[in-house]
Write a structure and sequence with these properties.
With 115 residues, the chain is mainly β. Helices cover 0% and strands 57% of the residues. The protein has strands at 2-7, 10-13, 18-26, 33-39, 45-51, 57-59, 67-72, 77-82, 91-98, 103-105, 109-114. The strands form two sheets. Strands 2, 4, 5, 6, 9, 10 and 11 form a seven-stranded mixed beta sheet that branches. 30% of the residues are buried.
């Protein structure tokens, strides 16, 4: 069983930056894919960024060039560096881990970007 805990959310002005973290505990060594999702004010869930075990990344077009996903395998942690934030980036950001069999979710951290 894997438990995920996100942190780093908060209130920031447009143009600002935040760095989200997601720490895994439990059987974290088997995680091979990490993803960040966000649930926006319209209650839609959007896949924001993905990083594979080999470090290959992928981003939603809405965040490409502004967000960077990275991972620290030694610390079982994934990060999401968010720069040039926009009000439309507001939402609850959750991380998801995948090990090829099981998927686990964190409870999320809220990001609010004011205009």
């Amino acid at each position: 069983q894997v438990q995920l805990v996100e942190s780093g959310g908060g209130l920031v002005q447009a143009g600002g930056s935040l760095r989200l973290s997601c720490v895994a505990s439990g059987s974290a060594s088997r995680i091979n894919v990490w993803r960040w999702f966000r649930q926006t004010l319209s209650n839609e869930r959007e896949l924001v960024a993905t990083i594979s075990s080999s470090g290959i990344t992928d981003y939603a077009s809405s965040v490409k060039g502004r967000f960077t996903i990275s991972r620290d395998n030694a610390k079982d942690t994934v990060f999401l560096q968010m720069n040039a934030l926009k009000p439309e980036d507001t939402g609850v950001y959750s991380c998801k881990s995948e090990d090829g069999i099981f998927h686990h979710w964190g409870h999320g951290t809220r990001v609010t970007v004011s205009s």
